[in-house]
Amino acid sequence: MIPPENPIGVFDSGIGGLTVVRQLIRILPNENIVYFGDTARVPYGNKSAEVVREYAIQDARFLLSRSVKMIVIACNTASAVALDVVRTNSSVPAIGVIEPTAREAARLSMTKKIGVIGTLSTINSCAYTSALKNEDARAEIMTRACPMFVPLAEEGLFDHRATDILAGEYLSQFVGKVDVMILGCTHYPLLRGAISRALGSDVKLVDAGEATAAAVRDLLAEKKSMNTQKSKPRYEFYVSDFPQKFNEIAERFLGRKLDFVRKVQIFSNGEIR
Which domains does the chain have, with CATH numbers? Predict the structure, then answer.
């Protein structure tokens, strides 16, 4: 049996998964966390499903090498196309972001008109459409890929004029037509202000962070794997490139100083260490 004090493992293509980490810290304050951001290969959303699946297996193996007790795929693209292979190759439970997020969106929508924005791979996978239809067959779903949002978030341009302009361009087709918008990429909540301004304040924004953290809490409780130790939790952050830039953005977003940020190497055989 894996000790309950072992960390939760979280991976993403870059900094976007911090939106999930922030909610994990809030909802599960006793849990230790190991995060891997694949900043050398971001974004995953414009890569083929085969490549994303390969990367996801490598990311999961790295987290397993850190003795994690479960894996959270804090990346919509990898959740959409690689959750199955991560589960197959993992000795611990693995959870993605799509099903919990779709469940919350279906619960919040009064009109059953739901928008989904995400990377090209996530939108083309129709994973959110399928998950929403499973939650409520009456749901009417509009989707759009917004690939330029990821580099804006990675650059830390959360409230830049360029972000507002692009948000207006991407989201004009949704205005007045949906009452809930799924931010179908974990980078997108970093741009919440610009997205909300483009859609209008009446549209509820649903991001993966809170819904996924709640699902993690429920799974840990079911497995009786919650950490009950009262010692200060450990948060370890690993990236495949640009550790200083990651640290600066992460500290600003999480509102805390990060004590442990390390760069790892990706070898030609796909090993990460």
Answer: 8-97+210-263 (3.40.50.1860), 98-208 (3.40.50.1860)
